[in-house]
UniProtKB/TrEMBL annotation:
<dbReference type="Pfam" id="PF01408">
    <property type="entry name" value="GFO_IDH_MocA"/>
</dbReference>
<dbReference type="InterPro" id="IPR030827">
    <property type="entry name" value="Myo_inos_IolG"/>
</dbReference>
<protein>
    <submittedName>
        <fullName>Inositol 2-dehydrogenase</fullName>
    </submittedName>
</protein>
<dbReference type="InterPro" id="IPR055170">
    <property type="entry name" value="GFO_IDH_MocA-like_dom"/>
</dbReference>
<keyword id="KW-0560">Oxidoreductase</keyword>
<feature type="domain" description="GFO/IDH/MocA-like oxidoreductase">
    <location>
        <begin position="133"/>
        <end position="259"/>
    </location>
</feature>
<dbReference type="InterPro" id="IPR036291">
    <property type="entry name" value="NAD(P)-bd_dom_sf"/>
</dbReference>
<feature type="domain" description="Gfo/Idh/MocA-like oxidoreductase N-terminal">
    <location>
        <begin position="4"/>
        <end position="121"/>
    </location>
</feature>
<dbReference type="GO" id="GO:0005737">
    <property type="term" value="C:cytoplasm"/>
</dbReference>
<dbReference type="GO" id="GO:0016491">
    <property type="term" value="F:oxidoreductase activity"/>
</dbReference>
<dbReference type="GO" id="GO:0000166">
    <property type="term" value="F:nucleotide binding"/>
</dbReference>
<dbReference type="InterPro" id="IPR000683">
    <property type="entry name" value="Gfo/Idh/MocA-like_OxRdtase_N"/>
</dbReference>
<dbReference type="Pfam" id="PF22725">
    <property type="entry name" value="GFO_IDH_MocA_C3"/>
</dbReference>
<comment type="similarity">
    <text>Belongs to the Gfo/Idh/MocA family.</text>
</comment>
<dbReference type="GO" id="GO:0006740">
    <property type="term" value="P:NADPH regeneration"/>
</dbReference>
Length: 347
């Protein structure tokens, strides 16, 4: 079968991860186009990845007749518009999370996706494609933990990235720590429980970088959530982890409990020397979720070839964003926020 020809928009840190995977690690596809405002990024795509078509505007790229699908790895605020443009131009779409930052715009995007049932749409919740999380899901679905009662999630970026984030926060809108980071954990909570979140209460603190107060960003945020079946979830999101990149999930049920990555180990090597017994830690998300990023890209291409839709839907993006925005609202207003109706727009 002929290879699926792919174009990518956004060649920042995450964009380069996806682009390299598409060019080198995913069979059945060919990365032929790249779009970026930054000429150095386009030069990288040409020289390092062998991309043949480069574009300064996304609108021009999605009109190219040689492209079958697009990977959207642009800033979050552009996702909805770019998803719609791609669909309207007959392209399959993979979009990084979040699906968008505005609930009304996300719902409009859903309608466009639904108008094109023959086109594949997939959202980048890559943790679902991590081997450890998939194994944990099998155990939960098999009833090994009984009925879930509490889920605890940590997502903490390495402190080495804080300086650059402070600069980014002053110039751009990430959507806030709950939309930008906790949305992965929110998706996992929904995935494991198959339930929706009803109530959230969120708090936060800027300690190492109080200047984030001035731009409305958080260094560390936490949220307590209650689901529709009374299951509880605790989220911790941060940007100042000194030992590396710490992503951990704990599931507690009536018959047992499990933890995914209780320690963010880089590999299975233990070093014993004058410093004691040392285990190296993963230092960033491309390292920790290397295989998950490859697996989700493989699934996207497989869905196109097999003419089926992936497990992750636009509704997963909508519901996770609703919860993340409710967390943001709770933090900003110091109030408990109830998501009254999953079909109604969150204020």
């Amino acid at each position: 079968m002929e290879k699926i020809k792919v174009g990518i928009v956004g060649l920042g840190r995450l964009g380069k991860v996806h682009a390299k995977n598409l060019a080198e690690n995913v069979q059945g596809c060919q990365l032929i186009a790249a779009c970026s405002f930054v000429q150095e990024e386009l030069d990288y795509a040409i020289t390092e990845l062998g991309v043949k078509e480069t574009y300064k505007t996304y609108e021009e790229m999605v009109k190219s007749p040689t492209i079958d699908a697009v990977f959207i790895v642009s800033p979050s605020g552009f996702h909805c518009e770019q998803i719609q443009l791609a669909m309207e131009n007959g392209k399959h779409v993979f979009s990084e999370k979040p699906i968008g930052l505005d609930i009304a715009e996300i719902k409009e995007t859903q309608k466009v996706i639904q108008k094109h049932p023959n086109l594949v749409f997939m959202l980048g919740f890559m943790r679902r494609y991590d081997d450890s999380y998939q194994y944990a899901k099998q155990l939960v679905d098999a009833g090994e933990l009984g009925e879930l009662t509490v889920i605890r999630c940590y997502s903490i970026d390495p402190s080495s990235g804080m300086e650059s984030f402070v600069k980014f926060a002053g110039a751009s809108d990430s959507g806030g720590i709950f939309v930008d980071m906790s949305i992965h954990d929110i998706d996992l909570v929904r995935w494991f429980t198959k339930k929706e979140v009803q109530t959230v209460w969120a708090i936060g603190k800027n300690a190492a970088y109080p200047e984030l107060d001035e731009v409305g960003e958080l260094e560390t945020g936490t949220a307590l959530m209650q689901l529709e079946d009374k299951t509880m979830a605790i989220l911790v999101a941060g940007r100042n982890c000194h030992h590396g990149y710490h992503v951990e999930t704990e599931l507690i049920g009536t018959k047992g409990m499990l933890r995914v990555a209780a320690a963010p180990e880089k590999n299975l090597v233990t070093v014993m020397n004058e410093q004691g017994v040392v285990r190296s830690c993963s230092q960033d998300f491309p390292e920790r979720f290397r295989e998950a990023f490859v697996n989700e890209a493989k699934e996207f291409i497989a869905c196109i070839k097999e003419k089926r839709q992936p497990e992750i839907s636009a509704n997963d993006g909508l519901q996770s964003t609703k919860v993340a925005l409710a967390c943001k609202e709770s933090f900003e207003t110091h109030k408990l926020i109830t998501i009254e109706n999953q079909e109604e727009t969150t204020k």
